[in-house]
Specification:
This protein is of the alpha/beta class. It has one domain (9-251): 3-Layer(aba) Sandwich (Rossmann fold). It has eight helices and seven strands, in the order E-H-E-H-E-H-E-H-E-H-E-H-H-H-E. The chain starts with 8 loop residues before the first strand and ends in an 8-residue tail after the last strand. The structure holds nicotinamide-adenine-dinucleotide (NAD).
């Protein structure tokens, strides 16, 4: 338990269940005394969050519904956030979605609709969220999103999500330029594979995991807590000079051929 995020109001988007990377980050941020606001997608995620926050002994948690598929939903969520806090110091965007049947087979079979859906939820949502967060980030701060190596390499079956992540990482750089003068940093964390609900949607994910352990320099999987530690660093006063960066937290997987 520390106080690296004491007096910081941080929005966490993307907790669905206890395996969610966003929940790993939230737990770490709670340990460091952050004041967290959560957006959730769907009643099941809300119920999970309520249960987890009781377990963490958080009184009066702020949980706001937000399906990021429309600007109106995002604007509505931020108007509710404004009722709760005057200033936001951080945003953790841990959201992605693609049709399961497009996370397998030939990438060229991706439908127009499926392509746009993956881009919309997994990439554009960061742009809209950042636009809405900026007016509240009057003291500077940190915006973080989650990416994967499939943005940089053609990873089997990752397909349309890899292309969405490439757009997401490019967005991070453009947003970093836009937000820099307001002392707001924008970065992505490229996490190694972690068993979560989203990851299991990629066909052959368990096969990928077997290969990962053999090939990765550190000969082990990355832990959600290690991703959370990097998010903590970026959101704390230690990470203030880093922006537009894509930090690999993957036990070195991205460096091997
Ligand atoms: P997860 O399934 O727990 O999280 C994905 C979240 O996206 C869920 O909370 C879900 O509710 C939310 N979401 C989906 N559609 C939404 C919508 N329309 N509106 C709002 N929220 C919506 O899985 P995760 O692995 O924790 O994924 C979090 C992020 O980490 C994603 O961006 C994912 O691509 C990325 N990531 C995951 C891995 C991995 O191996 N698990 C590796 C690298 C990056």
């Amino acid at each position: 338990m520390g106080s690296m995020l004491k007096n910081k109001n941080i929005l966490v988007m993307g907790v669905a269940n206890k395996w969610s990377i966003a929940w790993g980050i939230a737990k770490k941020f709670i340990e460091e005394e952050a004041n967290l606001i959560f957006t959730y997608f769907g009643e099941k995620s809300k119920a999970n969050l309520e249960k987890f926050l009781v377990e963490e002994e958080i009184d009066n948690p702020c949980l706001i519904s937000c399906d990021v598929s429309t600007d109106e939903n995002i604007e509505k969520a931020f108007s509710q956030i404004k009722e709760r806090v005057d200033v936001l110091h951080g945003v953790v965007h841990s959201i992605a979605f693609a049709n399961k049947d497009e996370l397998q087979g030939y990438y060229y079979n991706t439908s127009r609709e499926g392509y746009l859906l993956a881009q919309d939820i997994s990439s554009y949502s960061l742009v809209a969220v950042s636009r809405n967060a900026k007016p509240l980030m009057t003291e500077g701060g940190s915006i973080i999103t989650l990416s994967y190596l499939g943005a940089e390499r053609a990873v089997t079956n990752y397909n349309v999500m890899g292309v969405a992540k490439a757009a997401l990482e490019a967005s991070v750089r453009y947003l970093a330029v836009d937000m820099g003068e307001d002392n707001i940093t924008v970065n992505s964390i490229s996490a190694g594979p972690i068993k979560t609900t989203s990851a299991k949607g990629v066909r052959g994910f368990s096969t990928l995991l077997k290969g990962f352990e053999k090939r990765v320099p550190m000969k082990r999987f990355v832990k959600t807590e290690e991703v959370a530690n990097t998010a903590l660093f970026l959101c704390s006063d230690l990470g203030t000079g880093i922006t537009g960066e894509n930090i690999h937290v993957d036990c070195g997987y991205h460096i091997v051929g």
